[in-house]
Amino acid sequence: MGGEHFIDKNALLYAPEKLERKPETTITGFLGVDIRAGKVLAVEDFPQMRKPSYKIQVDFGPAVGPLWTSAQVTNYAKEELVGRVVVGTINLGAKKLPTGFVSEFLVMGALNPDGTVRLLDLPQDTLPGSCVM
């Protein structure tokens, strides 16, 4: 194949054609998930993780405040992330990673077929803490 980049869609876990539609849920179930806008305050390398990752601190506004997460989004430069408005799910419970770091929310993005995360974008003037529906 030389210098060409080739992606075998049949071998990729997140290829859209492999993702079955999920069962229906209720609006009550959906609204039970607390999804909010937040502004990235800090991004740090996280070399202790098995896969390339960052530690990311996001401000979710006055009612929630700043929370930390670990995310495999090293396809973005750290400078590109600081100040960015992201989408986070904040009520899934904290998760202690094997490194001892506690991830407090899930940053949301779309998974490309190769597993690369493309973060969800919101306008820069979105207020931290705004509900995402």
Automatic annotation (TrEMBL):
GO molecular function annotations of the record: tRNA binding
Source taxon at top rank: Eukaryota
UniProt keywords, alphabetically: RNA-binding, tRNA-binding
Gene3D superfamilies from the UniProt entry: Nucleic acid-binding proteins
Membrane spanning residue stretches: none
Domain TRNA-binding residue range list: 29-133
InterPro entries: NA-bd_OB-fold (IPR012340), tRNA-bd_dom (IPR002547), Tyrosine-tRNA_ligase_regulator (IPR051270)
One Pfam match: tRNA_bind
Protein name: tRNA-binding domain-containing protein
Source organism of this protein record: Chloropicon roscoffensis
